[in-house]
Amino acid sequence: MKREHNLLTKSPQADYYIYNLDDFKELRDRINNGTEASGIRYPNGTTGYEGKVFAMVNDIDFNYYAWEGIGTSGGKRFKGTLDGQFHEIKNFKTVNNTSNSNSTFFIMSNGGEICNITISGTYTLTANTQHIILFSDGNTTYHHIVFNVNVTNNYNLINCILVNGPCTIVDCYNFGNFTCSSSAYNSGGSFQISGTIERCANYGKISYLHSGRYRTSYFITRRTYDLVIRNCVNYGDMVNADNRNVGICVNQAKEITNCLYCGTMNIASADSGMISNFTPSDSYSNNFYDSTKNTPAYSNGYNGVGMSTADLKSGNNIFSDTTNWVYESGYYPRLNNWLKDDSRVKI
What we know:
Layout: E1 16-18, H1 21-33, E2 53-56, E3 60-61, E4 66-67, E5 81-90, E6 93-94, E7 103-104, E8 107-109, E9 113-125, E10 130-136, E11 141-153, E12 158-174, E13 178-180, E14 188-198, E15 201-202, E16 206-208, E17 216-230, E18 233-234, E19 238-240, E20 244-250, E21 255-257, E22 260-261, E23 273-276, E24 284-285, E25 288-290, E26 301-302, E27 305-307, H2 309-312, E28 325-326, E29 334-335
């Protein structure tokens, strides 16, 4: 489903335009094969098309083609800008890789920018593969992205975005449901990142169903570098067979400010809760959770402030912030975002 938006601004003049699946295949093959400088379509590319802008001009139906990602494990990466111009990639799925050393993904980038795009689809992975829709080595900026991909991975992790180095993520939203199934041995969540994430939300249900292994269901987790989280909200439910659920963040963050958790959570261990695995400090402030749904239990962590469902739905300005948040009686507080009213959560 394409999400309606309030923004009408289109990208400035692009270097290249993407009209269909074949154009995406062309971009993939040129980067993966190192043939960017040749040919008629997308010629004169620099390494990874660094500095070049690709713009989608319409919605594109992938028709569940088994997509092999742009970028390779050998270090070839997309380094340009992909501007979806608020169009949608429909019926997306990735190839079913056969080894833990492989990953399934849409784009592997290093630097550059990916923005203004919706990605949707429903599929199951049955081989031992890590699944990340957007992957970066670092220094990539992601903004105005909607993930509406429902994924079941029988063996490994699922992430919307995973970044190994510093990055910036702003106004990105996950509506997809992720299930790490009964054979899974890794964790699942929306964002596994370093750097700064602001004004992002998870609406999807994150489920880790394999018992007997210490893994986590989460909204955000730190990857390798300092993590700053501001004005983020999780409405999705967390499910875990017998281990850890974390509503906002797992692993140490430099700052967590003005964040909200409104989903349900089965408390599978003492490490479950809103924010887990670090010591509270002045850098963690003004964070709230729905205490009617959850009673966080920690051995090491920080819950924030519990409020009842009625309090959170009262329309009160709990963050003292009307620039980033919208308060409407009968609804949970929501981000003042680029989506229309389908981003509201009424219970």
